Amino acid sequence: MSPAPILELREASFSYGTEVIFENLFLSVQLGEFHGIIGPNGAGKTTLLKVLAGILEPDQGTVSLFGRPIRDEPRMEVARKVAIVPQETGLNFGFSVFEVVLMGRFPHVGLLGLETDKDEAFAREALVRTGTEHLADRLFNELSGGERQLVVVARALAQNPRILLLDEPTASLDLRHQVDISRLLRGLCSEGLLTAVVVTHDVNFVTQHCTGATLFARGKVLSAGAPKDVVTPALLKDAFGVEVDLLVDPKTGAPVVVSRRAVKGGGS
Predict the structure, then answer these.
(1) Using CA of residue 42, residue 56, residue 54, residue 151, what is the dihedral sign?
(2) How many alpha carbons fall within 13 Å on the CB side of residue 170?
(3) What pLDDT does residue 90 have?
(4) Closest CA to 22 of 181, 197, 221
(5) Beta-strand runs (E) in the chain
(6) Collapsed DSSP state (helix, strand, coil) of residue 80
(7) pLDDT-derived band of residue 267, with 50, 70 and 90 as boundaries?
(8) Is residue 101's pLDDT more than 80?
(9) CA distance to 5, 9, 83, 98, 151, per residue, from 89 (Å)
């Protein structure tokens, strides 16, 4: 008998007015899993992530966190357990990087909202984990897009959540930082310190780094399970409308998705 999921969506539907985003959706994530939700642009992946975070409430169905409906949990209690890394973060004031990362401690501070030495230690550790400690005194709004994204990940880690939800976390990162963040998250998950859910349209990110996957398109789950079972040419053609081939990474054995045109004709 498999353990109960740490995060679960059951028979959930969500609409914006008359626009149906998904209906009767099931999705589950196990403790310590690094789970990737993949699908085409405009499929509603960001909306799905917000529903999982409790930011949006489904029209019907339930979102469960540690086996309890998330709607029954106090919002601050949810914030102590779940952190979200959005695709874009707008901070127009002159906060330093350290101040931004320290904001991640907000759910844990007392009624007066005063951070302690412990809170500052969490923030500094998060900066070190993400390789951004050298940016601590810089102004956040003066950073490059990639640097800002790393700092936002650090802010989420400073929150010390049990579950981390990330929306296209590597979109602004160069290759080295993509690999570093991916290794960091997978390491934290494998140590049981974190459960991570990543929303992305980058199929190869999921095959290379994730331990579980969900293919989401047209408002429904097309497949869920191990990445090698979810990322298949037939399923990707159904979801993305393109024909692909799968190569095998000689070091990891993980599938690598390439367009059929690139394989046969050398184009992109």
Answers:
(1) positive
(2) 23
(3) 66
(4) 221
(5) 7-16, 19-29, 34-38, 60-65, 68-69, 82-85, 163-167, 195-200, 212-217, 220-225, 244-248, 255-259
(6) helix
(7) very low
(8) yes
(9) 29, 26, 14, 16, 10
Lookup: tokens for 48: 């799905």
Each residue's pLDDT tens digit, 31-48: 999 999 999 988 999 999
Exposure b/e, 32-50, CB count within 10 A at least 16 = b: bbbbbbbbbeebbbebbbb
**Rounded Cα distance, 161 and 53, in Å:** 12
Question: Any idea what the Cα angle at residue 97 is, between residues 96 and 102, rounded to 5°?
Answer: 100
Per-residue pLDDT of 225-252, as tens digits, reads 999 999 999 999 999 988 998 888 888 8
What is the DSSP secondary-structure string of 196-215?
EEEEES-HHHHHHH-SEEEE
- 164: which 2 tokens? 């981390």
pTM of structure:
0.90
d(CA 237, CA 216): 13
Radius of gyration of the chain (CA): 19
